[in-house]
Specification:
Layout (H helix, E strand, L loop, with lengths): L13 H21 L2 E2 L5 E3 H9 L3 H5 L2 E4 L5 E4 L4 H10 L9 E10 L11 E10 L4 H17 L5 E7 L6 H13 L7 H9 L14 H4 L10 H16 L5 E2 L11 E9 L7 E7 L3 H4 L7 E7 H10 L12 E5 L2 H16 L4 E3 L6 H10 L4 E5 L1 H5 L2 E6 L5 E5 L9
Parallel strand pairs: 1-5, 7-8, 12-13, 12-14
Antiparallel strand pairs: 2-4, 3-4, 5-6, 6-11, 7-9, 9-10, 10-11, 14-15, 15-16
Helix pairs in contact: 1-5, 2-4, 5-9
Bound molecules: adenosine monophosphate (AMP).
Adenosine monophosphate (AMP) binds next to strand 6, strand 10, strand 11 and helix 11.
């Protein structure tokens, strides 16, 4: 027990860090290029924020939250996603005060009590963006492109971008009614969850994992038959912009987000080889959310992508970078006096921004040389009696095995 982390969590080990940094660096570069600024919000919030901001009736809120009462008697929840938190921070800190568009990104741990399996964890990491304050469809296209460009710039292939529109408060009720009517005729064939969804949220039946393959779901009425002019034009414009940017996408009428504050564009990027957890990224517009959380009506749009799933996809496509060479220099010392000189050299090199290490186990020179080779260092810096007597150091290039003796004070120059 003591040596096992809780189910659904994972240590990220030094050998895996190169991959994480590779993804994180791409994220930072891309967000700078797209003009999104970083925000960091608390890992826990008042439970009510997620109940309102994600919505009761969703699996995340009803079944998957890590909720507890703190010592002050408050109900607290570990964030299962970050959109609600970002909107809360936007309102609390009046980030809207300057007017206009606010573009934010975040990375961090999210927590969901779900059944762990490949690509599904209880603590996982998301990168996400939120753009608040603008309803231009060009922003929808920008957000989709950002997600797409991230995955493409990492080298990933075989991705599928699916888009849909979920309408708005004006036209969606008509569609909901149409669906209710349609699914009522198939009531006996619905799974137990969908039977409940029929009244509360019939759109969610469309993306049910259990009922998904049934023919009557394929044949269900499509939202395009109910869209208002504004939603229709918005969606057409998003598609036009994506085409102009050369991005291939598929229309998927069954890509839905059931809650009322979701509006217009919904999208998902899938990578089929992830199996059951094929969604790499998902997002869309939520023009009703800021108001739901207590702000003035403010349009918003965002997406989130799972970093672990990106890493699985990178591994499958052999795109993970190799671990970096760890050190520039490994200092090898013979005897106690040499250790003092060596330690002094170690400190000086590090202060010159040169990565260096030495043996701390008082091993033999031979064993230290082996260790130096194993460490991936470019140079071994050898300090023996002779070197100490002449204030010099023997520098061995561990790639070519070439060796030379140079004055101690000139060592830093070989790294220039
Ligand atoms: P969502 O917030 O559910 O729209 O998820 C957005 C993305 O986060 C998904 O496409 C996944 O890449 C990732 N994700 C969601 N849930 C999990 C989980 N339990 N474990 C790992 N990644 C997840």
């Amino acid at each position: 027990m003591l040596t096992n982390a809780p189910r659904g969590t994972k240590d990220i080990l030094p050998a895996q860090i190169a991959g994480w940094r590779y993804v994180e660096n791409k994220i930072r570069t891309l967000c700078r290029n797209y003009g999104y600024e970083e925000i960091r919000t608390p890992v826990f919030e008042h439970t009510e924020l997620f109940q309102r901001g994600i919505g009761e009736g969703t699996d995340v809120v009803d079944k998957e939250m890590y909720t507890f009462t703190d010592r002050g008697g408050r109900s607290i929840t570990l964030r299962p996603e970050n959109t609600a938190s970002v909107v809360r921070a936007y309102l609390q800190n009046k980030l809207y005060a300057d007017g206009g568009l606010v573009k934010l990104f975040y990375t961090g741990s999210m927590f969901r009590y779900d059944r762990p399996q490949a690509g599904r964890l209880r603590e996982f990491h998301q990168f996400g963006v939120e753009a608040l304050g603008e309803q231009n469809p060009a922003l929808d296209a920008e957000i989709i492109l950002l997600a797409w460009d991230l995955l493409k710039s990492l080298g990933l292939e075989n991705l599928r971008l699916k888009i849909n529109t979920v309408g708005c408060a004006k036209c969606r009720p008509v569609y909901r009614q149409k669906l209710q009517h349609y699914f009522s005729d198939n009531f006996d064939d619905l799974c137990e969850d969908c039977k409940h969804r029929l009244n509360k949220n019939p759109m969610r039946i469309l993306d049910c994992k259990v009922d998904g393959d049934k023919e009557f779901i394929e044949d269900a009425p499509k939202i395009e038959t109910c869209l208002c002019d504004e939603c229709r034009e918005h969606f057409a414009r998003v598609q036009k912009l994506l085409k102009a940017a050369g991005v291939e996408f598929e229309l998927d009428a069954r890509l839905v987000r059931g809650l009322d504050y979701y509006t217009k564009t919904a999208f998902e990027i899938q990578y089929a080889e992830l199996g059951a957890q094929s969604a790499l990224a998902g997002g869309g517009r939520y023009d009703g959310l800021v108001e739901e959380i207590g702000g003035a009506p403010t349009p918003g749009i965002g997406f989130a992508v799972g970093i672990e799933r990106i890493l699985i996809a990178l591994e499958k496509q052999n795109l993970l970078p190799a671990a970096e060479n760890k050190f520039d220099a490994f200092i090898v010392t013979a005897g106690s006096d040499a250790e003092i000189t060596g330690f002094d050299l170690l400190t000086k090199l590090r202060r010159e921004n040169i990565s260096a290490t030495m043996d701390f186990a008082k091993r033999s020179v031979k064993a230290q040389m082996k260790q130096a080779a194993k460490s991936g260092a470019r140079f071994a810096l050898i300090l023996g009696e002779e070197e100490l007597a002449s204030a010099s150091v023997t520098v061995k290039n561990l790639e070519t095995s070439a060796q030379e003796k140079i004055p101690l004070e000139k060592v830093a120059q070989i790294f220039a």
